[in-house]
Design brief:
The protein is of the alpha/beta class and 458 residues long. It folds into 3 domains: 258 residues, HUPs (Rossmann fold); 93 residues, Four Helix Bundle (Hemerythrin (Met), subunit A); 51 residues, no CATH class. The protein is built from 15 helices and 15 strands. The strands form 5 sheets. Strands 4-3-9-10 form a 4-stranded parallel sheet, with helices on both faces. A 4-stranded antiparallel sheet has the order 5-6-7-8. A 3-stranded mixed sheet has the order 12-11-13. The longest helix is centred in the last third of the chain and has 20 residues. The radius of gyration is 25 Å and the shape is globular.
Length: 458
């Protein structure tokens, strides 16, 4: 196994990855709250941490990947009330939608997908342990965790309670001992989902769900706990507090967090209506294009989703597609010093905190070298086979059937060239005729600053 360095949010630095048990990895990634379709910002975490899982497996680790489904929560209940349906219907609908969108994006199913509603007994047991240790108190609306009793509170987010003010994500309740105490159990209101518990009928708080679900499957300290950076505080901070208070051992060795995806410079958010769903994007763009966008920057750097970024990802995908149409396949990777050197560089990038953008840059360097040396058939075939081997975890290359449709691609290049020549001589009638006839066949042309490109719509 190769040495892999990972940035650990808890430590605040990049450090060697060392699992609890050699060769085995328990990895937990916070899953969706299923009340709506996921947007491209949500997808960054799901795509990237699935990639991390695949890369660890490629390096010989036995990875057990856990990703929960939060199928009971305030947003789900509100959505059901707005639509006049049962909350279970909303949860089922959007759980299925999430699974469909993930499959379409090339994300592998988790090894374990616990649902909150199926894990309530484990949550009640964990709250009971906390109660025995004096971390719990009861109010008229629920059961709360005493944050200040946990001495290490703030160690993940590097936030001091004394410097914080209660914000919009901290519930205000005059019965609470401290504004930062958070709900472990919420007493039921009329027409809300509820379960029996030692404290009264109700439902679990959000934070206790992940602690209970991850622990009930792993049975030990997680090697990696992952999610978006918006979860660092308060969600992951609260997970650490309640888990370590109850179990008296670390919840996870490594905490990984991906940065946001903005939309045209503004934070992407369902609640603000400032988002674009994966489902909508997949109607017009191949999944590989979306993955190329999500891998285009280091996972801890902000991404901005805009027309230019999408155009750039399309150009990258078309570059790969053209390459695969241009050179003969090799079923095995020949012993090529150049390919070996490129492969070493890819692994160095990925071993340094999973630098996908650096690795993809090497892929394009190899493709460019082949275009410069087109007569070197063994090298060009070797690069194709080498890229295919890496695409088992990247999923950014054209599918086999797409890659072999060279005649169609060549014909489209001829038509685009003819149309461009017509436009150059101001023969707009011919240019528009080509565009309209292609549209009749379900092929839409888009004129961009970098030239025309097309997409199939049926």
């Amino acid at each position: 196994m190769e040495k892999i360095a990972v940035y650990n949010t808890l430590a605040g630095r990049t450090e060697p990855f060392t699992p609890v048990k050699e060769g085995e990895v328990f990895m937990y990634c916070c899953g969706p709250t299923v009340y709506n379709y996921i947007h491209i910002g949500n997808a960054r975490a799901f795509v990237f941490f699935d990639f991390v899982r695949r890369y660890l497996q490629r390096n010989g680790y036995h990875v057990r990947f856990i990703q929960n489904i939060t199928d009971v929560e305030d947003k789900i209940i509100k959505k059901a009330a707005d639509e006049g349906v049962f909350w279970e219907d909303i949860a089922r609908r959007f759980t299925s939608a999430f699974q469909e969108d993930m499959a379409a994006l090339g994300v592998s199913p988790a090894d374990f997908s616990p649902k909150a509603t199926e894990s309530v007994p484990a949550m009640i047991a964990l709250i009971g342990t906390l109660e025995e240790k004096g971390y719990v108190y009861k109010t008229s609306d629920g059961v709360y965790f005493r944050v200040r009793r946990f001495k290490d509170y703030g160690k993940l987010s590097k936030k001091s309670l004394d410097d914080l003010k209660a914000g919009s994500r901290i519930s205000v309740n005059e019965e609470k001992e401290d504004p930062f105490d958070f709900a472990l159990w919420k007493f039921s209101k009329p027409d809300e989902p509820s379960w029996e518990s030692p404290w009264g009928k109700g439902r679990p708080g959000w934070h206790i769900e992940c602690s209970a679900m991850s622990r009930s499957i792993s049975g030990r300290t997680l090697d990696i706990h992952a999610g978006g950076e918006d979860l660092v505080f308060p969600h992951h901070e609260n997970e650490i507090a309640q888990s370590e208070a109850a179990l008296e051992e670390p919840l996870a060795r490594v905490w990984m967090h991906n940065a946001y995806v903005n939309l045209n410079g503004a934070k992407m958010s369902k609640s603000l209506g400032n988002d674009i769903t994966v489902r909508a994007l997949l109607k017009d763009h191949p999944p590989q294009v979306l993955r190329l966008f999500l891998f285009s920057a280091h996972y801890r750097k902000l991404l901005d989703f805009n027309a230019e970024a999408l155009e750039e990802s399309h150009a990258k995908y078309e570059r790969f597609s053209n390459y695969f149409h241009s050179f003969k396949d090799e079923k095995e990777i020949p012993d090529s010093p150049l390919v070996q050197a490129w492969d070493l560089r890819v692994r160095r990038f990925l071993n340094d905190d999973f630098n996908t953008s650096g690795a993809i840059g090497v892929f394009f360097e190899a493709v460019s070298a082949c275009y410069k040396d087109k007569e070197n058939a063994p090298l060009c075939g070797a690069v194709k086979a080498w890229l295919r081997s890496w695409d088992e975890i990247f999923f950014i290359l054209p599918n086999e059937d797409t890659a072999t449709s060279g005649s169609f691609e060549a014909l489209m290049e001829i038509l685009l060239e003819l149309r461009q020549k017509a436009r150059s001589r101001k023969d707009y009638e011919t240019a528009d005729l080509i565009r309209d006839r292609l549209q009749d066949l379900g092929i839409i042309l888009e004129d961009t600053p970098k030239g025309a490109r097309y997409k199939k719509c049926r």
